[in-house]
Amino acid sequence: MSDEVPHGWRAGRLKDLCEPVERRLGALERSIVLSVTKRGVIPQSDTYDKEIASEDISRYRVIQPGEFGLAPMALYYGAVGRYHGSISGIISPAYNVFRHKDDADPRFLEALVRLPRMIARYEALSQGGNLDGKRKLTPYDAFETVKVIVPPLAEQRAIAALLSVAKEEFAKTEAWVAQIYATAEAISEALFLGIDPSSGALKREEWKLSTLGAEMSAIKVGIVVRPASYYVSDGGVPALRSLNVRPNRLLLDSLVQISKTGHQINNKSALRAGDVVTVRTGEPGKTAYIMDDFGGLNCIDIIFSRPGPSVRGEYVSYFMNSGIAKRQIAFLQGGLAQQHLNVGEMKRIKISVPPLAYQDQTIALLNEVWACIDAGEAKLRQLRRLQVALAEELLSGRLRLPERLVARFSDTPAAAA
Asked: When comparing pLDDT for 149 and 330, which is higher?
């Protein structure tokens, strides 16, 4: 924090704006179980697809709507937020609950505690951690000592109101992108079932029902055993990992490099244009296509497939990300959430193979749909950057709102603001 305090603001610490709440469930009736994550306070089922609370929940903390949750073992990466639910919930006894004080606006406090520069301070205060640098502890009593600068209440409310407008715009764009995803899924289902979207008629006279094992000339796992000597910082061969694969797209900003020797030893997993790569753990089945520009990459701990003469790689990629393939993967795994796809299971996935001309038409149409998705996600990233930058400038006092605007919030209750 800068030593310079803007005119009319005061220097303080987080404990000047908030206070801990100690409230246990005890013998009260069970309520919704919540998790504290970097996305804020959310239902536990949104994180794990089910509630995983322990059998004895009597010591779980009760959190009321509008209060804040904090995860000491995950605060270093931003696991703190305000609970926006409409009914009281419960959180793990390992978490903390706190609320805003009377001279603090809750929405202002929410924006403040989730600023990237604040998260960096939590990490600086963290203790311990495992060998991977995770599970670092930032106790609540350390959290509340973080230095802050605080504007008068009216200015807090004005800042919070402006940031809420930016947040609403982001939410609208997010909903729009989600709708495009839903549209893409519906179109994919129709195309892979052989339904003409314009007429609703079936176009399957020349189709054959096959399996990926029969249609792909190779389905293998990339480099599995990785000696430390494989990795180099420069001058090596880029290699894809699971985190580089998203549906129908590759993320190439965090590639690792393996030595040329390691690449030569594992040259069978060197990728060619037209191949497809599939995640096998975490989000099994997520698949992307290797375009002409990306040939020569190697791959680590993911499945790579090479199409035979009857299928296009891009067609297989779009198919694998469709609901049709996802349902088959779930069935092959017995409905278990084991989060793993092996080569044998992938070979058994059934695929309807139309003529290459139909595949090309399908690819062209889905390319257009996904171009809309890419544009929407690019706008989301831009809005997020603007949102963070605006919050940083307003909450640091470098950008001040006009006095006439702040005056409108002088006598406005926090809830109404």
From this structure: 149
Q: Does residue 338 register a pLDDT over 60?
A: no
Segment 208-223 mean pLDDT: 91
Whether the predicted model's global pTM rises above the 0.70 cut: yes
How far apart (Å, rounded) are the C-alpha atoms in residues 225 and 361? 40
| Residue 258, pLDDT score | 87
Per-residue HEC secondary structure of 276-306 comes to EEECCECCCCCEEECCHHHCCCEEECCEEEE
CB 271 within 8 A of CB 296: yes
Here the contacts of 345-349 (C-beta below 8 Å, separation 24 or greater) are: 346/212, 346/213, 346/219, 346/278, 346/303, 346/305, 347/211, 347/212, 347/213, 347/216, 347/219, 348/211, 348/212, 348/213, 349/211, 349/212, 349/320, 349/325
pLDDT, tens digit, for every residue of 148-172? 999 999 999 999 999 999 999 999 9
Choose among 245, 299, 242: nearest CA to 272: 299
* Residue 337 in this model has a pLDDT that exceeds 60: no
User: Looking at residue 311, what is its pLDDT?
Assistant: 95
Predicted pLDDT at 297: 86
CATH number for the region 10-150 comes to 3.90.220.20
Smallest CA-to-CA distance from 299 within 273, 277, 314 is with 277
Same fold for the pair 10-150 and 208-353? yes
Question: Where do the structural domains in the chain lie, given as residue ranges?
Answer: 10-150, 208-353
Show contacts of 250-253: CB within 8 Å, 24+ apart. Answer: 250/277, 250/288, 250/290, 250/294, 252/294
CATH architecture observed for domain 208-353? Alpha-Beta Complex (3.90)
